[in-house]
Amino acid sequence: MTTREFDGIRLERVREFVWELPREGDMRVPARVLASEALLDEIGEDKTLQQLRNATHLPGITGHALCMPDGHQGYGFPVGGVGATDVETGCISPGSVGYDINCGVRMMKTNLTYADVQGHEEELVNALFANVPSGLGGGGVVEGDMDTVEAVLSRGVDWALEEGWAVEDDLTHCEDGGRRPDADPSAVSRKAKDRGKNQLGSLGSGNHFLEVQRVTEVYRDDVADAYGLQPDQVVVLIHCGSRGLGHQTCTDYLRKIEKRHGDLLADLPDKELAAAPAGSELAEQYYGAMCACINFAWVNRQLIMHRVRQVFERVFDRSWESMDMHLLYDVAHNIAKKETHTVEGEERELYVHRKGATRAFPAGHPEVPPAYRDVGQPIIIPGSMGAGSYVLRGGEASMDLTFGSTAHGAGRLMSRTQAKQEFWGETVRDELREQNAVYVKAQSGATVAEEAPGVYKDVDEVVRVSDALGIGDKVARTYPVCNIKG
């Protein structure tokens, strides 16, 4: 058996791409890293493994604490982390969901080909940048009041449908139909609502983006056909979350938990893992608040998609319906959900925490939308501006190996501070345009530098591991045409 050691943390190779940190000391369960040797070397460079080991101390955690192939250091819980805790005897951990609740991705299809877009790239990237709000602070597609925010938090994309910002087809192709019924808007603070009311329909900043892409490869013809994907087709990828509202909600509950459940915190190796005991008042309040933030994020991406449809109508002088601009799928990757999983032969209800990890349910699972139930849930894996992205489908092994989860992207190699020291934004932008025919527009050069292709891991390798393990199977690959960022 091969072993690897990083800063005193020893991993044993269970089989190809599966590395285990055996249970020892106060660990409640073992931990596992799903990675190739090359990815494991990168994962071992920061504090990811330490954070993964810390996560095994969460009350009620079951099976294994898991790190996906794109894992890297986060706050408390690693990005790319999955941890399942018992809903009766365990806990729910805001730090294991993250500050950007329901950060996620949606992909919209079109019937346009790359040839249809060529010659329009500059017009398109400028029009998208002018019409889709981005960057720090306020400003959104909808300038909402408190009643609007309350409705969005409660009803999710149902609200968008009622207000004319969505069509029925959008709901049937979104995780959970675009609404978490357990949402409790009253559990979201006034401060959080104030931060969110002027951000409905906005990308925000950081690694969030809107990207027009073209399909370059198809790996599974039958699944791609079910998803409506074919080579040379133009698609649109939207990546953002719950903005300041979600960040404030996470902050609020971390502070509340620190005050009320200090005894539990004292037993955890990192206070950023702050967790509320299952069944406690704070656990119920946080779950309701988190579900409300999930609804907000789905509406946020829906409003951006609506605006994108309008921009395409103006640029290409035809209706969005005639361009067949329909949602392929929307899936969250910062979330904790009550799900039923089989653990050691017993069905148990668990809080499945996915922080920088994507749900990956296989064919036949009842929570996969009917349109995709025969082939498996779509998974969208964004890469970098210079490497492209992937569409996968939920793999047959995901339920046994990862509580129905896989990676969420390429995963960062370097911090934003280091990226700005290594790269010059204008140079990155010019090289992408001249060498890759990718048009990029952002609020600042610093943003482009922070998101330079060299900042990220090899998305091809991340997806290769997912596919080989059978947790997320390759369906199609896409490549950027134009990209806007905050």
From TrEMBL:
Keywords: GTP-binding, Ligase, Manganese, Metal-binding, Nucleotide-binding. It comes from the Archaea. InterPro entries: RtcB, RtcB-like_sf. SUPFAM superfamilies: Hypothetical protein PH1602 (SSF103365). It catalyses: a 3'-end 2',3'-cyclophospho-ribonucleotide-RNA + a 5'-end dephospho-ribonucleoside-RNA + GTP + H2O = a ribonucleotidyl-ribonucleotide-RNA + GMP + diphosphate + H(+); a 3'-end 3'-phospho-ribonucleotide-RNA + a 5'-end dephospho-ribonucleoside-RNA + GTP = a ribonucleotidyl-ribonucleotide-RNA + GMP + diphosphate. Transmembrane segments: none annotated. The keyword Nucleotide-binding applies. Monomer. This is tRNA-splicing ligase RtcB. The gene is rtcB.
